[in-house]
Write a structure and sequence with these properties.
This protein is 36% helix and 16% strand. It is α/β, with parallel strands linked by helices. The chain has a single domain, classed as Rossmann fold (3-Layer(aba) Sandwich), CATH 3.40.50.720. It has a 7-stranded parallel β-sheet with strand order 3-2-1-4-5-6-7, sandwiched between helices.
């Protein structure tokens, strides 16, 4: 049985950690990014820009041609444009680009993923994992997170809906967020590629959907769904 994973947005931290974990468990890993850089753990690289949906369709087609239809898809890209002044000072161009990651970009990727899942080996697990954060689950109080927060909220809504829409086919969808030991957010420095790899592999191995909202610690173990506040821990 051919097991294929496509990682959209494969950087040197999260993308690399997930690619290494999947490769170690028998997957052929294809990574997609603007630069077509092949991170450690990946067998192939394809070019895409998630803000341009047509490139997502091409990336899936190239992946199928190279390795077969992916039965695991990981969506990593996101945008962040902090406002230089008040909450409405983010340039419209930057806001539109950032929001596209969690709206049209994600939707286009899920369209292609569902089509690929239907062509993948029947006995292979089918999982779509979106790399999120806890912005959809906290009060909107900090303008610095405006564009990124809107994108993540839209993504969380889509993932929840899709997780309820394809249960009969056992196509599983997850919004996965690394959290601190207090349940809050983590800094970029604390973000662990290894933890993402462990947590995502655990998701792939699930037999049933379970909760669409996964929160996990720095070792990849699952954390609780408690009310959180946007306070970063050192």
């Amino acid at each position: 049985m051919s097991l294929v994973a496509l990682i959209l947005g494969a950087g040197a931290n999260v993308g690399k950690g997930v690619a290494q974990q999947l490769k170690a468990n028998g997957y052929t890993v294809v990574v997609g990014s603007r630069s077509t850089t092949k991170v450690d753990g990946a067998s192939h690289a394809v070019k895409l820009d998630v803000t341009l949906p047509e490139t997502i369709k091409t990336a899936f087609a190239e992946t199928e041609k190279i390795a077969g239809p992916p039965n695991v898809v990981v969506f990593n890209p996101s945008g962040f444009s902090p406002p230089p002044g008040d909450a409405v000072s983010v340039p419209l161009e930057g806001f539109t680009r950032d929001v596209a990651f969690g709206t049209t970009g994600l939707y286009a990727a899920v369209q292609e993923a569902v089509a690929a899942f239907r062509k993948a080996p029947k006995q292979a697990p089918k999982a779509f994992i979106y790399t999120g954060n806890i912005l959809p689950f906290v009060p909107a109080t900090l303008p610095v997170f405006l564009s990124g927060g809107v994108s993540k909220v839209a993504a969380a809504y889509q993932i929840q809906l899709f997780s309820n829409s394809f249960k009969e086919e056992n196509f599983r969808f997850y919004f996965a967020s690394q959290i601190s030991r207090t349940g809050g957010p983590v800094t970029m420095k604390q973000l662990s590629g290894h933890a993402h790899g462990v947590a995502y592999w655990n998701l792939v191995q699930r037999k049933d959907q379970g909760d669409w909202d996964l929160r996990f610690y720095e070792d990849g173990s699952e954390g609780p769904h408690e009310p959180v506040h946007l306070v970063f821990q050192p």
